[in-house]
Structures are given as structure tokens and as C-alpha cells.
Amino acid sequence: MSVPSATAATAAVPASVPPGLAILVLALLLSIQPVTTDLYLPALPALTRSLGATLSAAQLTLSGLLLAFGASQMVWGPLSDRFGRRPILIAGLSIYTAASLGAALAPSMALLIVWRIAQGAAMGAVVMSARAIVRDLYTPLEGARAMSKSLTGLGIVACICAPLGGLLSQWLGWRAALFALTLYAIATLALVAWRMPETLMQRNPRALQPAMLVHHWMMILRNPTFWAFSLQTTASYGGLFTFLAASSFVFIDVLGITRTHYGAVMASACAAYFAGTFVCRGLLARHGLQRTVAIAGGLSLAGGTLMAVVAFADWHQPWALMAPFYLFMLGHGIHQPCGQSGAVGPFPRSAGVASALNGFMMMLVAFGIGGWLGVALDGTVWPLVGGIWFWSVALATISWTLVQQFGEPREHA
Asked: pTM, whole model, 2 decimals?
């Protein structure tokens, strides 16, 4: 596999941000999303029983968090274009730390949902800023390579989170998994405050003016390249979120595996995603952005379709369902760095707003999936399998049509 050299992938990085530091910080910032979800997933059935809650209420701890995550980016994005990435990052990580502590101590499901929503809103500042920083530091193609390196780090963290969450909830109870989020936030906040400089070289003093906001939103929403890559990332995340929201109930309650075993299942899916980020860099070097996305679309479709074949054949075993899902996750490791970089690529001076709109689309779909699963989970594997199959077909269609037609980034003001 051919991996781009460090020089090529970091040529656009300002001297004030060492390349290694940029990738490390981006990996930690982007990883806050799987840390927030994956660490507590093994504990989700247990905390639902412990707090005497319904399945639909339990789903709100995830879907409510993600809706707040998506919606808050619409506010954080313009703020970061006006004041810079660093102050927004520090504010977001500080709020996230307090909300994580509140969630760990919540005495009821209602309060847990409130604190998770606050976590989601703060997480929006962190992830949106990370995506905007990629555009601050890199051109679109180099940004996809840098993003794939950062998401490799995310894959490592995600591989650790699921087994750690299973062990913590098994040994110390479900609250221990939520306390771990507080520690992660404190460590990331310390690194950003100590080492990470501002990356936005030219702030936009008019970014918060209503007329300017509307102008930027309309400019971005009229851009077919933005739509092509945003729909691609949204469909890819839709398949992943279906797995995240349904798998703990399907694998633990339906298929009967333990929470520790479920943590290992999650880690194996993360490993496939981790491998996908490496494959992404090799494909980008050989084939460029659009053809790389087309290849990933084939992997996604193969994974979702083979899962459906397994389910139709009544092979309702964890290994039988996971084997094809690894193909979907391999594709996901390619789709996300390419799509997130491609969506903001045309907008070097409005990267915060473009990143926010892209993130909002993904989380709006996730919220809808969470609501659907709260009703659809029926004690069978079909809500999990059918949901992933649907998104794999949508993802392949978008990758082979819209991205191929409109995926060549052209800069706008």
C-alpha cells in the first residue's frame, strides 16, 4: 500500500502548528464523538433497567445527544469564523467536562437525558472546530489525507472505548463508563489550552451578522459539491449510527452475548474502520478523491447486502452478522475523511459554517434513526440488518452518481 509522505500531506500547515501536533489534536478532538457514544453503549441495557426506563427513553440518551450535537454546530460554526477556533474549542471542552460529570451522577433517566443533550451541544463545538481546522491548514485533497490520519487515531480510540466500557460497566457499574468521559475531556482540554495555537489566520468580523449568515448558508447550500459530499457522509453515518443505536440490544438481549463480549464485538468493528483509514490514504494516492469514494461505495453496498443475505438465511449468530459488517466499516473509514474534507473544501473562508451544516445533516438523520429504532426494535435482528442495508444502498448510489458528477471542489469566497 502506498502511503503519502509526511511532507506531501502537511505542506500547507503553517509553521506555528507542528504537523505532528496538528494530527494528534485533530485525532483527540474528532475522537470525542466515539468516546461519548461507544464507552457507554455496553452499559445501555443495564442503565435502562437500573433507572427503570423504557427502550424509547434509553434511545433518547443517544439520539437526543446527537440532535443537540448537530443543531449546536449551526451556532458554533459562525462563532468560530468570527472569533477563531481556539476559544470555541476551550469553551466547548469546558462545558462538555461539566456535563459529563452531571451525566455520571444523574439520579434519573430524565436528568441523564438532559445532561447528555448538554454533552451533545458542547461536543458540537469540538468536532465542528476540528473539521474547520482541517480546512484552515490543508487544501481539499491534502485535507482528506490529513483527515484520514486523524481518523486513524479516532479508530484506535474507538477500538479501546467499547471493550473499556464493557469492562467498566461489568466491574464498577454503568456510572463508571460515564465518569471516564470526564477524564477524557479534562485531558483533551489541557492539551488544547497548553499547546494548540489559533489556526484561523483571518477572522471574519461580519460572520455573525444575520445578512452575512444567510449569505453564507445560501452560498453553501447552492453548491452541488457540498451536497454531494454531505449526502455521502450522512448516508455513511446513517449506517454506522444504526449499528451503534441497535447493536447493544440486538447482540446482548437478542443474541445473548455478555457486555464484555459485546465490547469485543464493537472493538472488532472499530478495527475494520481503522483499517479503512489506511486504505483511504493508499487509494487517494493512486486514484484521487472521486474514484476512491466510488470504490468505498462498492464496499459499503457489499457489506449491507451480505448482512441481509445472512439474516434471510437465518444465520443469526454474532460472527455471521459481523463478518459482512466489517466491509461496511472498511468503507466508512474511507467515506468519512473524503466526505468531510470534500464538503468544506470549496469554502476556505466559511469553513466553520460549512462544517456546521455538514454535521447538522448527519445528526438530524441520526436523530430520526434513533426515534425509529425506539419503535422498531422488536426482539429480532431485522431493525439492525434492515437499517444498515438501506443506508448501504443509498451510500453506493450517492458515491457512484452525485460524487462523480459534482465532487471536484471549486473554491468560493
From this structure: 0.74
